[in-house]
Every structure is written in structure tokens, then in C-alpha cells.
Amino acid sequence: MNDSELQQWVEKVSLAAFGVPFRHKATFNGRLRTTGGRYFLKSHNIEISPHQLAVNGVEETEKIIKHELCHYHLHLAGRGYKHADPDFKRLLKQVGATLYCKTLPGAKRSLPVKYYLVCRDCGMSYPRKRRADPRRYACGKCRGKLKLVEAQPEQEA
């Protein structure tokens, strides 16, 4: 599918689900990997991840399009278009869009746990990806002092 076919698809979904035409530009952006799409507040254009279409199919991509169109139509109407706004959540439910898209395989960029902040009193452990100064924190359970411990590398069986 190319950008002009996506443009027609977005226009069709906008009319069918919202009853209002989409009058701006919709394009694919191959750099989008951790998000399904984007709505731009200044230009009112929408970008969709082609990877979502390839991996998760037409049905999931249409939910992403509806999500971005919720931002679009609410913003242009001067109503709450952000994820936390009740108007946005209500419209998402009404049109059958999802708040989050499915994760693409290999898209998660998580660092391994390298350190733990461990409470000296109760033993509660807080995993950390970066080195942290234990004097700046207290245990969330008992308010005790913490110590920094390096994570042990996992042993292969």
C-alpha cells in the first residue's frame, strides 16, 4: 500500500466513523516502530507506521487510524484531544479505536537491570537500569536507608 491509498483509506474511515471529512494529509512513516501513528497539531497531518500494517494487519491499522482521527477531529473542534481527556476517551470507545497499538516484534528497547537499591531494614529491592545514589532515596515500604548492589550476571545452565 502506498501513501495515496492510505490517504483514501483515512478519508473513508473519517467519513464512515466520524461523519466528518478528513481534509489534510495522511502518509506512512517507516521510522515509526514504538508507536502506531502520530497526529501533528500544527499541520493536522497524520502519519501511520507501515510496520503495523505488515505485522498486525488491516484491522489493527484501522484502529490506529481511528485513534489518530480522534486526536484530529477533537483538536479541530476545540475539545479535549489528549489521551487523558474525557472527550478523547469517550470518542475512542464510540468509534472502536484502541488507546495503545500492539507492540512490534523487536521494537522494545529495554536495558537490562544492572543495579538494585536494597533496603537495609526490610530487604525490599528496587531494580535500577542506571547507577543511583542510595543517599538520595528511602525505602517506599518502611522509609529505611538503602544500599546499592550490583546485579549478578545470569548463569547459563
UniProtKB/TrEMBL annotation:
InterPro entries: SprT-like_domain
Domain SprT-like: 4-149
GO biological process: response to stress
Transmembrane segment boundaries: none
Organism, scientific name: Cohnella lubricantis
Pfam families named among the record's database cross-references: SprT-like (PF10263)
Protein name: SprT family protein
